[in-house]
Amino acid sequence: MIHDNVLSSSGDTPVVRLRTLLPGANVHVKLEGANPSGSIKDRTALHMVERAETAGLRPGSTIIESTSGNLGKSLALIGAVKGYPVVLVVDPKTPKSVLNYARAFGARLDVVSEADSNGSYQAARVRRVRTLVEQVPGAVTLDQYNNPDNPRAHTVTTAPEIAKDFDALDALVVAVSTGGHLSGVSSTLREHFPALHVRAVDAAGSSAFGHRFAPYRIRGIGLSWPPGNLRHDLVDSLHRVADIEALSTCRVLAKAEGLLLGESSGAVVFAALTYAMHHPGQSVLAIAPDTGANYLHESYDDDWLRDHGTAPELLWHRRDELLHHARSPAHEPEAVAVAAERSPSDRVKP
């Protein structure tokens, strides 16, 4: 297919079935890493920019946004194609490969180096964005956390693709992130599959669903506050995934299935395995937000892990080890309506 520019090649990402990890199971993974900049954020960023253009975004306006990685890559690419200067407010956790990618497309990086009292950089990044928007004439921020065009991007692109690919679907397993693709995809797919069970996946330590914030290492997932785009009413259950569970899943998927996925994708697939093992025979789709290319020299590298406080010897490298832990995860899935209470009686079937 011939495209006018690289942006129009986003979407229509492939779906693959996991054949080796759970033979006989019906678990599929939608590979959003196949988008131009390597993540589902291409859909989000492009739709938000196009809607902003419709609302009056002027050529040459500077786009300033807070990002921990993938959205920044998407905006850098879009800025290069459409001619918008882009300033990305990042932090020390942002993968070096992401920074280099953004620079290659001409984006300017503004690094927030001082964390908040809880150890998170996210709120500090957002405050810095507000300051820069006030200082730079004509600058705008898209506010991925609260912008309704974030979930709308997935009601018009991601969800229809899934509905086209599946005649029946029992469960959707999707990362929380900003709440955008979770809310957008879930709201539309419920129209096609009324009995669909939506399982949200978050980092253990994230406050997106109101839990007490605690530091975590996996990137591309989790927030230190509940995002405005997260609709609890669309979610049936929440699985909070620990660092070791996500990182181990990435390693095993690469060797067992030939899938090189990012850290948040590892979390999502781990949660999908947990769901599938406790609901045999059901059709399960996991949306993998990004590729593992961002992390080849980081979380896929034993020396890097060791230097950043994670002993690679603690990871699970065999299929049987991974499935053992997926059957009995560190954090049992919770019913979202009462997740904040975290009472044992409120837990749902894993």
From TrEMBL:
GO terms for molecular function: transferase activity, transferring alkyl or aryl (other than methyl) groups. Pfam families: PALP. Signal peptide: none annotated. Residues 327-350 are annotated as: Disordered. Its cofactor is pyridoxal 5'-phosphate. Residues 10-290 form the Tryptophan synthase beta chain-like PALP domain. One of its GO terms (biological process) is cysteine biosynthetic process from serine. It comes from the Bacteria. Transmembrane segments: none annotated. InterPro entries: Cys_Synth/Cystath_Beta-Synth (IPR050214), P-phosphate_BS (IPR001216), TrpB-like_PALP (IPR001926), TrpB-like_PALP_sf (IPR036052). Keywords: Pyridoxal phosphate. This is Pyridoxal-phosphate dependent protein. It comes from Lentzea guizhouensis.
